[in-house]
Amino acid sequence: MSRIEFQDIVRQFVLMIPTANAALRGVPDRPRLDFEVWPDQDSDLYDFFPMAFVRPILLLELNKEPVDREVLIACFEFIEGLANNEDDYIQGALYFEIYEQFLSGRDVMAKALEFSLPVTRSSLIRMLIEDYPETLREFDLKI
Questions:
Q1: Rounded distance, CA 56 to CA 49, Å?
Q2: What is the C-alpha to C-alpha distance for residues 9 and 97, in angstroms, rounded to an integer?
Q3: What is the pLDDT of residues 61-78, one digit of tens each?
Q4: What pTM did the predictor assign?
């Protein structure tokens, strides 16, 4: 997956994720308007990720049985494109607004690791080992 640049995040989100437009329509007016004119000085990944991506799409899919493989593959390709961007702001938003959300349960983390592509998987494993070793032991995941 090639690197997604900051200015292209919302455009790539809409192009890559099958349910992106529906998720964006569910965002309250003010943030949605900011996302629609992305990027501008008010653009904030710490708002965009949870409101448009993580809660309405990613976590819903990770908690479903059976999962929609097509949607999760698209989600993790999007995440991988972001993970390939070394910008500190993007990396911080990924860590706090996406990766840490996988800590909500063993099954969620196991599915996240299963669908993760190399850079994302490496980041998740590093996060677990360095920042959440107790959770890693508790989850008893094969990494």
A1: 10
A2: 15
A3: 999 999 999 999 999 999
A4: 0.95
